[in-house]
Amino acid sequence: KAGVTQTPRYLIKTRGQQVTLSCSPISGHRSVSWYQQTPGQGLQFLFEYFSETQRNKGNFPGRFSGRQFSNSRSEMNVSTLELGDSALYLCASSLAGARTYEQYFGPGTRLTVT
Amino acid sequence: KQEVTQIPAALSVPEGENLVLNCSFTDSAIYNLQWFRQDPGKGLTSLLLIQSSQREQTSGRLNASLDKSSGRSTLYIAASQPGDSATYLCAVAKAMDTGRRALTFGSGTRLQVQP
User: Fold this and answer.
1) CB–CB of B102 and A43 under 8 A?
2) What are the residues whose beta carbons fall under 8 Å from the beta carbon of B51, sequence distance 6 or more?
3) Are B64 and B91 in contact (CB under 8 A)?
4) Which of A48, B48, B102, B106 could form a Cys-Cys staple with B6, CB 3.0–4.6 A?
5) Which of B5, B42, B47, B103 to mutate to test the interface with A (most CBs of A within 10 A)?
């Protein structure tokens, strides 16, 4: 079974631009969560989508948004990029209905804002 | 607000040593605790998951324990190998149903195993 995939793997953007990152969960997983990892703040939860609905949101500004499609694939969007948005963005999928709620992570998208 | 702390921040040991990584959390109302491994610039690999009702989990040379009441977990690595060199992260999930997929992470322990 294929793991969580994220595209693109690397991205360079200019301050003020917007960016869209994509995540395809493990087949059968209906929950997708997004995390930001930076050297200063570590790993922080952004939001979680389940059945095309945002179920949870972390403490990030409204410039960070996401959505989930009917096939469970998810995208996150960052508008008006700032230098501080440079980070590794990780998504994780989880099997709905599983008691463990175990999270499986993708390889991440490395975003550099210049 | 849940806070997760991992000590030590970095650890360097010779090959073959047994070692213990520590994780503590402030709010004992957790659903589970996961230990992950992260290689430089890569994603996270799940190592062990302990449900709040469990005391420990084992996988090969790894053993994780959980003491929910005291807010502590340890990851024990037996007979360490150079291939174990990585950053180890622990993360907790809230007990509330709506929060179980929003993990709170520690800052990690960077492990270097010297050949």
Assistant:
1) no
2) A99, A100, B31, B32
3) no
4) B106
5) B103
Q: What is the mean pLDDT of residues B21-48?
A: 93
Extract the tokens encoding B103. Answer: 């993990």
**Token reading at A59:** 């403490």
pLDDT in the model for residue B84: 97
As a whole-number percent, the residues of chain A with pLDDT over 70 amount to 95
Instruction: Give the tokens for residue B101.
Output: 């997929």
Predicted local confidence at residue A54, as pLDDT:
92
Q: Which residues of A touch B (CB under 8 A)?
A: 4, 31, 33, 35, 42-45, 48, 50, 55-56, 58, 88, 90, 92, 94, 99-108, 110
* A41 Cβ contact list (under 8 Å, min separation 6): none
Q: Is A33 in Cβ contact with B44 (below 8 Å)?
A: no
Per-residue pLDDT, B1: 87
Q: Compare all CA atoms of chain B with the CA of A90 and give the residue at the minimum distance.
A: B43
Cross-strand partners of B63: B58, B76
Which of A44, A43, A68 has the alpha carbon at shortest distance from A57? A44
What is the tens place of the pLDDT at every residue in A38-93? 998 999 999 999 989 998 899 999 999 999 999 999 999 999 999 999 999 999 99
Band of pLDDT at residue B9, cut at 50, 70 and 90: very high
